[in-house]
Every structure is written in C-alpha cells, then in structure tokens.
Amino acid sequence: MPFRETFWNIPHWAEIGQYILGLLTILVFAYGVFRRVKRWRMGQPEKRFDQIGKRLWSVLVDAFGQARTAQDAYAGIMHLTIFWGMVALFIGTALATVDWDVTHLFFGFQFLINGAYILYELILDIFGVLLLVGLGMAVYRRYFIRPPRLQPATAWQNALAQNVDRDDAYALVMLTLITLSGYFVEGLRIAVSKPEWSPWSPVGNALASWFIVTGDPTNRTLHLTLWTIHILVAFILIASIPFTKLFHILAAPLNIFFRSMQPAGTLIPARNDDQVGVKEWRDFTWKQLLDFEACVRCGRCQDACPAFASGASLSPRNFIISLKTHLWDTSSGHRLHGDVISSKELWACTSCRACVQVCPIFVDHLASIVDMRRYLVNEGEIDALLQKTLANLGRYGNSFGQSERLRVKWTQPIQAVIKDARKEAVEYLWFVGDYASYHVMFSDITRKTAQVFQKADLDFGILYDAERNTGNDVRRVGEEGLYESLVEKNAAVMSKCKYNTIVTTDPHTYNTLKNEYPANGNNHPVLHYTELLDQLIAAGKLQINKKLNYKVTYHDPCYLGRYNGIYDAPRRIIRALGCELTEMPRHGDRAFCCGAGGGKIWMEEQPEVKERPAESRVREAAGIPGVSTLVTTCPKDLVMFCDAVKTAGLEGKILVKDLIELVDEAM
Amino acid sequence: MNVVALFKLVPDLVEELEIDQSGTALNTDFLRLIINELDDHAIEQAILLKERSGARMTVIGSDAEGADDVLYTAVAKGADQLIKLMGDPNAVINNHAMARATAIVLKELQPDLILTGVQAHNDLDGSIGPLVAEYLGMPYVGYVSGVNVQNGRIVVRKEYPGGLIAEMEVDLPAVVGIQSAEQPPRYVTVNKVRQAMKTAAIEERPLPALDVSGGAAIRRMFKPESATRAKMIEGSTEEVTARLLDIFKEIGAL
Known about the structure:
The complex is a heterodimer. Chain A is mainly alpha-helical. Chain A is built from 26 helices and nine strands. In chain A, α4 packs antiparallel against α5. Chain B has a single domain, classed as 3-Layer(aba) Sandwich (Rossmann fold), CATH 3.40.50.620. The chains are: A mainly alpha, B alpha/beta.
C-alpha cells in the first residue's frame, strides 16, 4: 500500500530539533513582521477599511491570480510558476507533516495513502519542475538578458545598489537551493527504500536511478545531510521573509487589499489642516509607507514612464526604492527632500498614471509625488514659469494670464448666439476649459465644436467670462489652496445655473469635474464631448453626410483613457466617420503621455530631457505605414503634438487633428 | 532695524485701457489694479533683509481694490506690520502729493530704511522714491538690485546701463528704489494667504491731506497715435550715409 513515511532515516533528535527550529523561525518571522508594521504605523492615518468585499475580491484576482503580473508574458509565466510552485510545495510539506506528526502520531491514521498519496507525489513533483523552470527564467532574465528596468540607477549610492542586488540574488539562490535539496532528499530516499510506487515521483525516481548508478545507494548519511540542509534552508528562508525582498509575499497582498477604491481621477486631498504636504517620511500615510515596502523593484513603472523615457531625472522605480531605503535609514541623517528625492524628480512627473496602471501590486506613485510637491509649493520651491502660471490662475482664473473677458473671444466670428447658461436653463452646460478657450491654435476648433453642437440641435450653453480653470492640474502641481479657490468660484456660478449634464472639451477639466467636484457639490453627470457625440451618433441625432476615408491613428489622452476608461467612444466615432483606424504600438491603457499633464505644460523643460514625450509620440504615429493623421481629443495634446511635429521634422508627414475637426468635416 | 516697503497699485495691462470722456484720465469702469511689479520686488527685498538681519518689516500702501490682497500676501511672506492709507485713490497718480502725504506717516514710524519700486508705468510726475527721500531729508539711491546691512549702514548694488554694476555704502536712514530684488518675488500658496487673512490685522490710517503742487497737470490723455512719418532709406552703405548727411543738412542739424 503506498503511504508516506515522512521521517524516513531521520533520527528522533533531528525530528524534535526540527520542531524547535520551527518555533524559533516563527519567532524571528513574527518579530520581523511586527517591526515592519510598527514602522508603517508611524505614518499618518488613512481610512482603508471600507468595501471589504471588493478588497478581498481584488486580493483574489490581483494577488493570487496575479492578473497584472501576467500582462507581461515572460515575467508573468516566470512569476506564476515560482509562486504556484512554492505554494504547492509549501502545502505539500505542511500536509506531510500533519499526516505524520499529527494524525498518525496522535490519532493513528494517515490520509496520504493509496491513490491520494500517489496523486500527492505526482503533483508535487510537477510543481517542483514548474518552480525550477520559473527560477531558471528569472536567473536568465536578471543575469543574462539584463533588461534595463532591473538595473540599478546610476544615481544611487553604490552601497544601496549593492544591497538591492544582494537582496535580489538571495531570493533566487534560496528558492533554488530549497527546491534542489528537496529533490535530492526525495531521490536518495527512493534510491534506498525503493517503494514500488516510485514512478509516480518522476523527478525523484530519475534522481534515484542516478544515485544508484553513480554511488552508494545506501548512503544514509548523505541523505541525512541533505535533509538537514533542506530543513535549514527552508527555515532560514521563512525566517528571513520579513527582512528581505521576499517580504512581498505578505506586503503585496496587503497593499492590494488596502489599495484606493476611489476612481483613479480622485486625488487624495492634502491631509494636514495647513496643507503643507509631506516634509518628512512620517508625513506619509501608513498606506503610502506600505506602498514603498511592498515594492519588488520589478521596474514596469520605469518602462511605462514618459519622464524616464525622455531622459528626465525621474524613474518611478527608483523613487519608490529610495523612499523605502530612507524609511529604515536612521543613521545617515539624510533629509527626505534634497538628499533622498530631488525636486527635479518630483517636477518631472506628468501625472500620466502609466506607472500606477502597470504596477502589479497597485503602488500609487502619483499620490506620494503630489504629496511631496505640496511641500515644495508651500516652500515656494517652484520654477519661475510655474510660479507665473499659478499667479495667473489665482488672479485671472486661467493659465494664460489673460482677461476673463477674452475667454469667449473665440465666439466672435460665430453667427448664432451661444446661450449664456447663467441667464437661461440649458440641457448641456458646456465647460470649455482654458486651452480650448484661450489658445490661438484652438479657437477655430472650439468654434467647430460649437457648430457641431448646433447642427445636432443640442440645447447647450456656456458660462462665458464666469468660467474658471477647473484646477485639475493645479491640484496635481500641489497647490491645493488654489485648487480649492478655483473650485469655489466655479461651484458658485454653476450652483446658480439650470442644466442637466456637463459636457467638456478638455479631458483634464472632465476628470476633476467628474471625479473631484462631487465632493464640492456637483451631482450632475459629466460627459466628455466624445461620449456625447458617440451617444448622438448612436441615437441618429448626428448626421454624418460624408465618409472621410482617412487613414488615422488615435492617441488616448491620459485623463480620458487611463484616468477614466474612455477608450471606445472616440474610436467608435472615428469609425462612424468612415476613417480607417490603425492603432499605435502604445495605445489604450498603455498610451504614451504627451508630456503636458500635472502642470508640466506650465514648467520649463528640464535640461536632461533628450527626446520630449510628445516627439516620441508623433514619431510613433508617423511610423505607421499609410497613416496620415494623428487624431486626439485633448486640447493640450493638440498643442504639444503640433509643436512636436515641427521640432521632430515631421511636417508634411503627419497631421495632428482634434476629433471634432473630422466630425465637423464629415457633417 | 525698521524696514518699510511702499507699494502702489497700477492699472493691470491685461485689460485694455480706455480714456474716459474728460480726456484726461483712464476710464475706471474696466480698470483693474495690480501691484506695481517693482514694488513687489521691493517687498521681496525687504523680506530678504528681514530674514537675514532680523529687521522689523512694515508694508504701506493706499486703499484701492486689491490692496488688502497685497498686504495679506506680504504678511504671508513674512511682513510684520500692514498699513493701509485710507483716502481718495484717484490721487495716486500724483506722486508729489502722495510722497508728501506718505512722508508724514513715515515720520511717525521712524524707519531706518524705506524700499520702493524704482518706477511704475503710471508715474506721470517722476518716481515716488526720490520725492519721499526729499520730503524726509534722507539720501536716495535708485536702480538697486540688492541690499545688505553692514555695521549700521547698507551696501547696495546699483545697476548702470551697459552692464556696469556699482556697490555703494549708504548711511541710514535712507530711501532705496528697487530695480529688482536679489531673487524673484517668492510664491506664497493661496492657503498661506488665507491663513494670513484670518490672523493678520491691517492697520487703517487716514491719508494725510494731499498737496498736489509740483506734480503734473494733465491736459490731455491719449493712446499712442499711429503715424506714417518714418521713411526707409535704401541702398548701399555709402548711399545711405550720403543721404543721411543731406537730411541732417536739410534740417539744420549739421
């Protein structure tokens, strides 16, 4: 009868010793975890215990299912095989122990017998192989392929980079040791005891035959030695979890559980009453500290980051690693601002959210960047251009520093009068936004938007000179007080207007109106103009008279796509116009930011920048054979891309158009 | 040390300026006021002095729309005392009158150093700094881009055309016309200004009686008129030079 003799050839002292060692391991492990949790609790409070059901579901899908990890094929297979291999072997070891030292010892029965035992052996052997495959892939990738995103940054102090390297190697060495020693112990046991069911452990059996051929198959001392190594490695591995990279086994699921359940476009307000932001690490919330601790340095954020790609000093990966190191660095006297994180890094961020979107464990880099920016703004450490813009926004309510009365200058050539939503009730309140109102390149396009609305018999109006910048990017720059004052001014006017739905031209405007104004009393639905046109086309209210037949590609604006999940509406419109749409390599939630967001469009270019994100993007578009037009749905994109087409020398090769121009042309 | 920064509010050129029906003044319907940029630099320089030398800093301006914002912003940056002179804001275009009135207030404060912008775009009768210095009997240095306190005196950096810079010692008390502060005026967050509004007090003092003598009387105010009197002289260098000499002779300049 097949059964499990778990402690074959193991003397009684070793078996007892194992349990004492196990107890010690648990103590060290518990201390390590306690030490970490204590540190997190030194951060600021933050409420993350709502929506427990949703949180547990996310842990199931994203921690156990590793949905995001799997989006990168190589890394996904690598990690899933290691993860499930270790899970299976851990459960297997636990089962064997219970089978032998609990049920057999105390109750006189075993459950790992007959078919169950044979299945058990087979499954564990297979998972062991999977684990080795995963580890092999990891070693090959880290030490032979050497992708840039796994390399230490040159900016790091060498000591830090070495620690990180050692930590990475440690995890791989230990996991490999534990798997190989386990197989060898099994092989030697089979070589000596030769159970008839041994073919069900194919790897162990193969090793057994090898032992029989090469040496003394009855070498019980070798077996005991290997068993001891296996046990020691296993206990050291478990005890070291809270002190090494392996801690992500616990921290990653926790970080996923406690992730923000708010819409992506809702920024957490400045916490302290005086809104000074994060000056020292203890000003971060416990959840932000958990973010830093859970990171495994996989570098996907760095690969996705437009600032990093452009050559600017920011790598979201290094940002998090530096913060994590700083958290435990009690002796160097480094200051968070300046020594650990430079203001250049903080100002390089375009708030495009690509890093947050790809992070397998839902680290929110952006929340921490904005919190640190708040401190810089409070200290007045901002560049001259940004300072001028913020002053303009405070004084005139627009980033252009122009009179409010010029906000509606674009309407002058229009024959039909656009309703003043302050004076009469309208169905749609059109929030035009700064760029669409003031920028010289956009006034014609904004007129076309009005024409399209009028041709569709839309009952709409605007706020005329009472509209103010909504503050989306002001908030992400870190000027919370200015953001609040802009909200107050807009909310005061809007509360006096009668309308059903808000429609916006600008995705940035759209984002804050939809996700952040509700906290300030707006409970009207908010639509981006592409959503509205998509609805009108579906309802047959927008007549398309001309098929355009252009070959186009479409750029997803960050604040429309990644922030708000609007990917399909603009594409449906493009197809409805008769255009042929070819996607760029980076599209949808992987779309590459134009570089304007988060207030970047109001800042001076950093001298380190080699290729501006907008140039990279127009080159990407121009590189698609046959595509003549890059279509976008964000005024800032249009301004950035038109400029980039000139600086990249692509004039005549690719046109940049707002989707509304094509709609207008087709009507 | 007592440092006083003087500021005035000037028409914001973001709005188009219009002349009123009298033809001697701006139409105030759409007029919007903003701090004179160089006065903002004077405030910044005063804050820097306070930070470096622990001076007590007072900001003084006339009552007008936006004056409170300027004062609260100044206190958010670090000013100690805010004074608003209550009176007829239309009088501010006469710097002789303003300087005399301000001098009366300044005497009471007994400042060691008075900083103000070296000029403003609506100075019709000269800049206010030298006038204040005259009525207080103090020395004046203008076009200054840096002030330091040393042994009870100040050392100022004065800019001259052509890139020349002079450093000079000035006895206190003195009046200094600021061309630019050592660093651009700093940014203060809206939140800091709002907190200043809650905690700081603006001291309102009556603007002493205005004596406009010595100032400019406005006969006519008008926008620059376009004319077509310019003539382009074309040709080689010799031809152009010869033609120029002829013209100079024609108008009697040679």
